Amino acid sequence: MENKKLVEFIEIMDCILLEKIEFHEPKIKSDIYEIIDEIVIIDDLLLLVTRVTMLPFSEEVIRIEIVGNIFERAIKVAEMGERLSNFKKIANKIKKSIQIDDLTQDLRDVFMKIYNQIQAKMNLNGISLKIKFDNVKLSLNTSNLIEKSKLVDSFWKNGAPIIKNWSEEEIFSGLYRKVCHLEYVGLRLIPDGEYIFVESLAEYSNYTITYDKFSNFETLKISFEEKFIIINGDVSLKVNLKDIVYKDFIESKLVHFDELGIRVSPEIFHFTKYGDKLEQEKIESQEYMAGSSLDYIANRPIIEFM
Predict the structure, then answer these.
(1) How far is it, in rounded angstroms, from Cα 219 to Cα 207?
(2) Which of 6, 70, 258, 304 has CA atoms 20 to 30 A from the CA of 288?
């Protein structure tokens, strides 16, 4: 805790809980409201919630009001940081608090209401991720291409695709269709054979993140090498999730990079680790799920939750 006033106040509340000093309810309540807006660290606010939950208030409605105000401040601090980890800390704290045996039903209901608000905000804001490419080599999958030979030959003869966010005017005028560019990044929830999915629909689910969701991609570079594209650099992006797959996505640790989509005139070229080697992909996928090999997830870019 960096806030000295909070440190002193926590010590006072601990002494109250140990019955070393008397509990002067009006003074403690006033001090709590005075200090809440000064706290800018999520962990400090959650620590304060723990003490308030245990203090012997004369009426439960007072405790509920104070807890609600502390969480309201915590949500504001989380939003200022715009990091998934901030919201997850609050959500995890609420889940642990709900498990307390002597928690009153009224307070339990308040915790659940706040928990649902946190989940809604996390879904609304999207999940922020960073994909880190370190000399990742990808192959072209030609199985879905209509004009295979003509477009493919032209693609390899021209310069590498650009990476940018297109303006509404550029999209409206069709300019973005005339320039070879990175159209999307694809992610996939890949089972490891051990994780039990909360929702079966999440298993092998795909997530396509288009260029308008990209940010901080200045270091991202695409180059050619013997009919492969080589990717280096980082890209930050946001993934919007449906509630049904939310828990599996953020807690399963099975989110992996799947493919890049590059627009070439009217076509989208799909680049994956395996390209057209679908049989090899199938075999290595089965080996990975059986726990006998990690080849399937090897040499993919690193996914980091932000």
Answers:
(1) 23
(2) 304
Round to whole Å and give the CA distance between 71 and 89. Answer: 11
The span from the CA of 126 to the CA of 249, in Å, is: 12
Query: Which tens digits make up the pLDDT trace of 81-138?
Result: 656 677 778 878 887 777 777 778 888 888 888 877 777 666 656 678 889 999 999 9
Residue 7: count other Cβ atoms within 10 Å of its Cβ. 11
Residue 221, pLDDT above cutoff 70: yes
Domain residue spans in the chain? Answer: 4-125, 127-305
Q: Strands 221-225, 302-305: parallel, antiparallel or unpaired by DSSP?
A: unpaired
